[in-house]
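Slide 14.
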Amino acid sequence: MANIGEYFRQHISAPDKVLYRHFDGGEWRDVTVGEIAAQAGRWQTALAMLGLVPEDRVAICLKNGVDWVALDLAALGLGLVVVPLYVDDNADNIAWCVTNAEARLLVVDSTKVASALKSTASTLPPVYVLRPDAGDPDATVASLLPAAAAAPQFRSLPEKTLATICYTSGTSGRPKGVMLSHGNIIANVLSCQETRMARSTDLFLSILPLSHMFERTGGYYLPLSIGAKVVYARSTAQLAEDLAAQAPTVMFAVPRIFEKFYARVDESLAKAPAKRWLFRQCVARGWRVESKSAGWLDALATPLLRAIVAKPVLARLGGKMRLTVVGGAALDPEIAHTFIGLGLPLLQGYGMTEASPVISVNRVGDNDPESVGPPLPGVEVKLGEAAELLARGGNVMLGYWHNEEATRAAIDKDRWLHTGDVVEIRDTKIYIRGRIKDILVMSNGEKLPPQDVEFAVLHDPVFEQVMLVGEGRPFLTLLAVTRERDEKALVARANERLKAFPRWVRIRRVVATPEAWSIDNGMLTPTLKLKRPLVLARFKERVDAVYAADAASRAQTRQASS
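Slide 15: predicted structure.
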């Protein structure tokens, strides 16, 4: 028997204990166990008044914060099923997920979200708005919740009781609803605990959406299980200010956050050659120390270089960051080497929603940024056909909501989860080589995972975002977000970064655009993953024209030679 809410109930005897901090009324404010308990109790009374019973679905479309936590705990405690949704997702997708999950209740963050949904969907469950505009006619959370209520209850449930339906990002087509049980999530939290990396004295900064299982398990349930404190960042736009003001010790992040930070540091160093040289010395020597390949001079110079060079840089992260775990997408090893060399353990992990979500992570003291580390305790991994990574453990999902066919394709009869990632496993560590569906097979038979090429090209700051094209084609073309318009210059700059690759891995044409790929224009998922099929579809005419022109040119050459 189990209930995720037990992680909270263990603290109820200490009502004055501070578990959270958020920005409220123009200032940072601590939130105690007693305050969360009171809010969760009010929610449970309201949910019962609405007639919700165990297994009913409650959809949450709120920004990170104590309101999200209180509603989540209330629902889980009663055996309801939480359906987390991305506030920044488009209304059509949110409405589709709500309808697919057959939710009985939808709680949204703002009037704007409620209005967008109502103009998109013909049928919705009762909608309650947390932060209504003045004069908003919609039902509000304030009107729903009673002024006071009894302490929250957390029912003892079978481990296989469905806890959440978490919709995948959907890089192609409609998302699938991943069904995770209380037992699945608890198994993953216990595995994370066993790494001994998180401490009860830590201050976690929550920046990724709680609708993402990476943040929900690692940045919410894990700290709650050990009694660590969580501070909720206001927004990504205010992240630098929040880091400086709150000085967290642990943060879960996606690569994009460190890519932007790295780019800003690199840009500032470009104007100061002497500082750039010192910076590179600090990174190189620090990396050799961390990778246990340092000589006596490295060991002697690194502490001094870090005091002079690294300390001001890491101060921008608050100055107290003890470690950060990066997941959700592939991390450029050069960026990882840089921060590790500066003295910040940046640990790349790997997982997927279907695994609750963490499968593997590097460890402090044994950190190979080329890999995603060894599997968590309690998680088995092995290679399947075509070197696909298979994973098995108590953290593996129950299946996909209303999609038996997809469930059978993802989980075999021996309960191995087929991840869809091509990997190598060396000395227990997992090395990702690309998504099976993303690997390009060119017309000459050469196979190429695009990720490494894209990382290399992005080291040139003229390229803001890139995507490699070449499936079934005779040569590689690069789709690029850039302000540079000279295609020949772009081709030359891209290939300058590819000298270490085999000679056939070269860019022949570049299709450029100044418009960034974003969530708003549909090119990125809410977790900032590139929707490759949609990007390709957006530029299909221009890409087809590139290859058609090449084919015509070659035909003319053959005709002239004959």
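Speaker note: The domain at 440-561 is CATH 3.30.300.30 (GMP Synthetase; Chain A, domain 3).
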